[in-house]
Amino acid sequence: MDGRSSRKVTGHREVFSSFTHHLINSIGTYTYPISFEIPANAPATLRCPYGTVDWHLYATVHRPGHFTPKLTATREVIVIPCPKEEENEDTGSTVIERLWEQQLQYSISISGHSFFIGGTIPITISFMPLSKVKIHRFSVHVEGMSHPFQAYILSKASIGQSESIIIPKCDGLLAQTP
Amino acid sequence: MRRIARSDPVTFIELLNIKNKNGSTPPYVLPLDSNDVDVLRNSPLSTLLTPEDDLSEVASNLMGPGPWTFNRELKLPVSCSLMHFTNKNRRSNIVITHYLRWAMRVERGDDLHLDPKTGKRKFYDIVVQHPIVILSVSCCSSQFSAEAEGFP
Questions:
Q1: Is the pLDDT of residue A111 over 80?
Q2: Closest Cα to residue B70, out of A97, A137, A123?
Q3: Which of A89, A151, B3, B33 counts the most CB atoms within 10 A of its CB?
Q4: Whole-prediction pTM value?
């Protein structure tokens, strides 16, 4: 399984190939339970105008014989950033109270800190005029800023390098249907 | 040491905008200042009302000395193509932050600060920014199950 940002990383293959060598010895359908542990600090799938993070699952089957080609398959997977449980349960509200020039006291109350795309933001706006102040307009926006980082400088020597980040873990033979 | 290569233009997604049309009288939205019985119905503040609100009661409150309170659930865009989720993982080399930006334009109630050219009262813009976290639509439990079903 690969995560690609500005560098290329590839998965580890040794465990998988050595395991199959001893088990496939007769005709039948073999099913192996393979699980991948995605590191907790792995970046999620992201597509921005000036950079993307894509994840691809690569599977390779090595077959004996010098001229026997390998069987390969590739599939794109989506890595979803899941919030921590305490972030989900954190439903406290934020209250901002200000006094402007002894003219107007205002408060903004926002329920929650994290919101889903397509969800709602509960907000309470309160104005307490202390003089004959007039409000001409008010608005609420979500302001988004993205900062691409220049983390790696591509050079001729660094293009071919790879990094193993995930080791496939095989729990054993799950089913065999001869 | 990582450094910011570039900063993309700041994206603004409007959730709420209350203002009068150009040339309308009076130019301000609060307090309500009219003898018309349908002043609130014709005001941009009508978008903040719920069907349960009594128009005459709310209008009399907004004509009074305050406080003027509005409750609203602001709808975020549904499509992920309009906005990204907040990402603070620097391993992705793209950091995305979000702020809830609340702004209002006010006019003083006294004549302490007047515009020397026009002699009118100055306008002041008050801006409050609060950091929020936007989560991916895939994190929602119903959406997550739908996504998971797509994977064999």
A1: yes
A2: A123
A3: A151
A4: 0.73
